[in-house]
Amino acid sequence: MNGASKKSLSERVAVKAAPISEAAAGAILTVDLGAIRENYRRLKARLGDIGCAGVVKADGYGLGGAQVAAALAAEGCATFFVAHLAEGVLLRQALGARPAIYVLNGIQPGAESEAVEAELGVVINSAGQLAAWRSAAQRASRKLKAAIQV
């Protein structure tokens, strides 16, 4: 995108979906939250004391990130990863204060305070991100959650 417009793609392009029958759709997606919960229980049983996180970026890969995360949280999942800050803010609103939520792609420069306000952690993958997150922690006068990508 050239610097002329800072609007998101969804703000710039309005797409209206025409009503379509199930027969014409060609496929129907059914999200079985019970199966997602069972898969998590089985994974945790195999892992024992090893931590396990839910990755619900891109709206849970199109399955409904908040709904999938809530199902996983009900099974004891306490750590989640999203791709972008906005996803983390929405997930925090959906799940409340308890779980740890990390932003995989880091925080865009200048948006650190929004991540701090939403109690999000960041995945650090550059020296610049580390310096920015350290500065955000100093401004907040507290430690902030971070994971280091190697």
Please characterize this protein's 3D structure.
The structure is a single chain. The chain contains eight helices and five strands. The protein is of the alpha/beta class. Strand 2, helix 6 and strand 3 form a beta-alpha-beta unit.
Features of this protein?
disordered N terminus, alpha/beta, TIM Barrel, five-stranded parallel β-sheet
Sheet-strand content, in percent, reads 5-15%
- Oligomer type: single chain
What is the number of strand segments? 5
**Principal-axis shape:** globular
The end-to-end distance, rounded to whole angstroms, is: 30 Å
Could you state the CATH homologous superfamily of one domain? Alanine racemase
Number of helices, counting only DSSP H or I runs of 4 residues or more: 8
**Rounded mean pLDDT score:** 87
Order of SSEs: HHHEHHEHEHEHE
Provide the gyration radius in Å.
18 Å
For the report, how would you describe the main beta sheet?
5 strands, parallel
- The level of helicity is 40-55%
The top level CATH class name of one domain: Alpha Beta
Instruction: Predict the CATH topology of one domain.
Output: TIM Barrel
Summing up helix and strand content along with how strands pair, one would put the structural category as alpha/beta
Order of the strands making up the biggest sheet = 1-2-3-4-5
Q: Segments where pLDDT lies below 50 for 5+ residues? A: 1-5, 8-13
